[in-house]
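Researcher: Structure prediction, please.
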Amino acid sequence: MGLLTKKVLITVKTYPNPSKKYGETVCCAGIDLETSQWIRLYPIPYRDLEESQKFQKYTILKVQCRKAPNDHRIESYRVDSDSIQVIEQLDTRNKWERRKQIIMPTVCRSFCELLREVPNQKSLGMFKPWEISFSAREIKLNDSTKRDACYSQLSFFDKKKDAIEEIPFHFYYHFKCFDRENCPGHKLPILDWEIGQSYRRWRYQYKTTKVLLEKIQEKWLSIVSDSRDSYLFVGNMQRFSDQFMVLGVFYPPK
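Model: Predicted structure follows.
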């Protein structure tokens, strides 16, 4: 398949990740405005983009891309990063009305239902959670020499940059599917760019790790509180189709 030109409303940006194959990239996902279907755009070397190409969530991008040849997931497309054009960022006026017009038609009834569709390779979706709680687990960081090696072998044309910091915690949402009495409950890791950035920024504001984690929990529970009409954006892993992660939260006010 040749290059396609698409307009996409970006709803998901994951925390940057270095790899030997692609350098440092982020995975982005959103809604294809022509088809109203989910689409995954990868790899995007976000910190290497020109300033005019950098974008926030809820931005409409115009990109050239093709179906990812080595990714069986139907939503996955390889992006020509040079083609990225920022068209418009949708505002939050009228309780996020412009964003809701595009995003809400894609809502799945539940995460349980989304899991049943996985055999058909559906790997992105959104749904309304219920009875949400939050947890954090400290992890052992990867070998820094391997991580640094990914940066040391970046091509001559990549911009020089400091290695992105690995966050020493995994964060999780625990929830049940809304309006499903037989839901067994779910626990998914959170990979949103914003939670990683919050950890990096707030650790200088709070004197102890305990207080820092409490503030992160407070923030990520507030956006799924009863005052918000909240939905989770989720996606799975290429190699392990049954392993999903929370990629972001859509939380317009009620």
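Model: The longest helix spans residues 209-222.
Researcher: Thanks, that helps.
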